[in-house]
């Protein structure tokens, strides 16, 4: 809960990937309140005992959302998919607007790799932005498992990370009102 809130404030991309990781963790713990408490809450020394029930309720809300959306076995919460749609909309704006000049250069280095990446990670209807997130998440899972992952993913990670980082940074700046996308120089 506290980690998610901090990530949401600081970096939308890290927030999305963190929630995806929690989704998988909830599934691995079979949505059991006892397992969630013993694995995720009980061992934490930075949470006051009187606050631990609030953390359990937050995790159980997440578990209940997964159930309500029929994603007990796989898939991602609509909340994160909507955020990715927002990021994709921003991506499309940055490809056109003057404020996206630097982003376009970063994107241009990755763009030739998209067909190969899509053939491994994505599906035809998936936006480029969702494809990047799925590739980052796959790479993260491969690292956790101690595996290298697919060559298409690992080869393009060095190109994906800067694009997602810049997109997330711009998203935060727009959200905080630090940048007006439509303001001309």
Would you mind describing this structure in some detail?
The chain has 9 helices and no strands. The protein is mainly alpha-helical. The chain has 2 domains: 2-68, no CATH class; 78-175, no CATH class. α8 (128-145) packs across α9 (151-175). The longest helix is centred in the last third of the chain and has 25 residues, at 151-175. The mean pLDDT is 90.
Brief account:
The protein has helices at 2-10, 12-28, 33-41, 52-68, 78-94, 101-110, 114-121, 128-145, 151-175.
Helix amount = over 70%
Number of domains: 2
Number of helices: 9
From the spread of the alpha carbons, the general shape counts as globular
| SSE topology string | HHHHHHHHH
- Beta content comes to under 5%
What profile does the largest beta sheet have? none
Which terms summarize this structure?
globular, mainly alpha
Ordered list of secondary-structure elements with their pairings:
Layout (H helix, E strand, L loop, with lengths): L1 H9 L1 H17 L4 H9 L10 H17 L9 H17 L6 H10 L3 H8 L6 H18 L5 H25 L10
Helix pairs in contact: 1-2, 2-4, 3-4, 5-8, 6-9, 7-8, 8-9
């Amino acid at each position: 809960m506290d980690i998610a809130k901090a990530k949401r404030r600081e970096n939308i991309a890290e927030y999305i990937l963190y929630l995806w990781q929690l989704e998988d963790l909830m599934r691995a713990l079979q949505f059991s309140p006892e397992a969630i408490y013993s694995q995720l809450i009980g061992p934490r020394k930075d949470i006051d005992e009187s606050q631990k029930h609030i953390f359990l309720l937050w995790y159980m809300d997440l578990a209940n959302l997964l159930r309500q959306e029929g994603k007990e076995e796989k898939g991602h919460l609509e909340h994160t998919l909507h955020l990715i749609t927002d990021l994709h909309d921003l991506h499309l704006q940055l490809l056109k607007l003057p404020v996206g000049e630097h982003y376009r250069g970063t994107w241009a280095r990755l763009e030739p790799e998209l067909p190969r990446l899509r053939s491994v990670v994505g599906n035809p209807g998936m936006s480029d932005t969702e494809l990047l997130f799925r590739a980052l998440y796959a790479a993260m899972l491969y690292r956790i498992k101690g595996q290298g992952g697919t060559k298409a993913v690992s080869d393009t990670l060095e190109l994906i990370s800067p694009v997602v980082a810049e997109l997330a940074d711009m998203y935060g700046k727009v959200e905080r009102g630090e940048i007006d996308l439509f303001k001309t120089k």
